[in-house]
């Protein structure tokens, strides 16, 4: 079983990355093979909306997204992690989401992948500095549609408010435990 972690924070050692690492540690301890991808380290051009992917399910833009497509399709489960920037996910994370138009086209336009009967699940981890009631609404909606586009069921989330300083999440041991447990439950199907 493979679990792919996608880290959308541009800041290394961020609260988001710490929580993602804990979730991947939990998934690994539950028996999964885990891999973490740093969106900020990939060269991903924006979607050009030329619909070339409607022909064969492949994006014509040749960049690091080509490798990520394979990882997204191979993964049994996904942990998507992004801090909140202006009530949404980061631009690095959004570039990944937008470029998955090709995977959406494979599934919804071309009917590809129907032979894949795996019950693929995904969880979302996010950290926001403010405490606004709707802080995560936009990001959660984006991630739910992203997961649907790539054939993954949205099955959980860990959303932390009021944390901003680098590595401040380490002052919240319950959040770290929750992230670890989220990774375990993802693998165990709970």
Kindly report the CATH topology: Rossmann fold
In which order are the strands of the major sheet placed?
2-1-3-4-5
Provide the structure class: alpha/beta
Radius of gyration: 16 Å
Portion in strands: 15-25%
Q: What is the CATH-assigned architecture?
A: 3-Layer(aba) Sandwich
Within CATH, the superfamily carries the name Flavodoxin domain
State the share of residues found in helices, binned by percent.
40-55%
The biggest beta sheet reads: 5 strands, parallel
Describe the fold and architecture.
This protein is of the alpha/beta class and 190 residues long. It has one domain (2-188): Flavodoxin domain (Rossmann fold). 40% of the residues lie in helices and 18% in strands. The chain has seven helices and five strands. It has helices at residues 15-29, 53-56, 65-74, 91-99, 101-109, 137-149, 173-188, and strands at residues 2-7, 33-38, 77-81, 121-128, 153-161. Strands 2-1-3-4-5 form a five-stranded parallel β-sheet, sandwiched between helices. The protein starts with a strand and ends with a helix. The model has no long low-confidence stretch (mean pLDDT 95).
């Amino acid at each position: 079983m493979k679990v792919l972690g996608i880290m959308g924070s541009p800041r290394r050692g961020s609260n988001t990355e710490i929580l993602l690492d804990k979730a991947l540690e939990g998934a690994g301890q539950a028996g999964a093979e885990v891999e973490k991808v740093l969106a900020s380290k990939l060269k991903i051009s924006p979607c050009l909306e030329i619909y070339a992917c409607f022909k064969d399910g492949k994006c014509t833009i040749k960049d690091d997204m080509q490798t990520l497509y394979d990882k997204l399709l191979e993964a049994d489960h996904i942990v998507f992690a992004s801090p909140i920037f202006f009530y949404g996910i980061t631009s690095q994370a959004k570039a990944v989401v937008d470029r998955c138009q090709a995977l959406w086209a494979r599934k919804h336009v071309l009917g590809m992948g129907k032979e894949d009967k795996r019950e693929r699940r995904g969880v979302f981890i996010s950290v926001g500095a403010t405490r606004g009631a709707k802080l995560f609404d936009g990001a959660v909606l984006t991630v739910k549609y992203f997961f649907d586009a790539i054939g993954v069921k949205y099955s959980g989330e860990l959303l932390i408010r009021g944390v901003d300083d680098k590595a401040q999440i380490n002052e919240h041991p319950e959040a770290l435990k929750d992230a670890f447990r989220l990774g375990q439950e993802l693998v165990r199907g709970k």
